[in-house]
Amino acid sequence: MTMAIELSAQVSALLKAGVELIPAIAQDAQTGEVLMLAYMNYQSLAITLETGRATYWSRSRNELWEKGATSGHTQKVISIALDCDGDALLLKVEQTGAACHTGDHTCFHTSLGDQ
Amino acid sequence: MTMAIELSAQVSALLKAGVELIPAIAQDAQTGEVLMLAYMNYQSLAITLETGRATYWSRSRNELWEKGATSGHTQKVISIALDCDGDALLLKVEQTGAACHTGDHTCFHTSLGDQ
């Protein structure tokens, strides 16, 4: 059923021409913690806007990936913003459970050092 | 002189094999606001780690880009973290002035709607 959801012409026009996969940052809407970076194609963005559930494009599996569909660690989308040149997205989300498949709350848990 | 700075073997080993351009999220270290997303190659990451000044790879100009080198809107790096699969970076920074070339504090100023 979700296959029928398409991105509106209005939103498509805001995206940078020629870009098929858009990096999407998921940020905890309450704490401000950056949780993960994944990618969206037009269809996954359309589904996310339509359903309010963060849905990405899995580059490794080459398929739509509703975050938490198997783990239960879903992301309820609070807001979505596009950057100034139309090629990056910022999602503020309510994260259920851990964002990272390792069980960590955030995927950014490998420090390369404090400056 | 910066041409001589190379990424350490230790850090290189943490990065996902075969990835040349790594998306790097800049987040305001104090407020938690996500400011921008840009890209780093190995050299710009090495320079950033060495100097503490956020330095990216400009995909449009095909050159190293020290953020703020012309605008004065520099980013002092407080910490850098890599994500779980080694293909995205999160920089916490002290942003001088606006992060966005439009004069906005953040590049993510085009709302696609609240859910």
Describe what you observe in this structure.
The structure is a homodimer of 115-residue chains. Chain A is mainly β and 115 residues long. Chain A has a domain at 20-95: Ubiquitin-like (UB roll) (Roll), CATH 3.10.20. Chain A has helices spanning 9-12, 42-51; strands at 22-28, 34-40, 55-58, 63-66, 75-82, 89-95, 110-114. Chains A and B meet through strand 1, strand 2, strand 5 and strand 7 of A and strand 1, strand 2, strand 5 and strand 7 of B. Strand 5 of chain A pairs antiparallel with strand 7 (110-114) of chain B, so a sheet runs across the interface.
Q: Briefly, what CATH class of the domain at 20-95 in chain A?
A: Alpha Beta
Mean pLDDT of chain A: 94
Radius of gyration of chain A, in Å, reads 14 Å
What share of residues of chain A is helical? 10-25%
Structural class of chain A: mainly beta
- Using the alpha-carbon principal axes, give the shape of chain A: globular
The CATH architecture of the domain at 20-95 in chain A is Roll
Instruction: List low-confidence stretches of chain A.
Output: none
SSE string of chain A, helices as H and strands as E: HEEHEEEEE
What order do the strands of the largest sheet of chain A run in, or round the barrel if closed? 2-1-6-5
Q: How is the main sheet of chain A built?
A: 4 strands, mixed
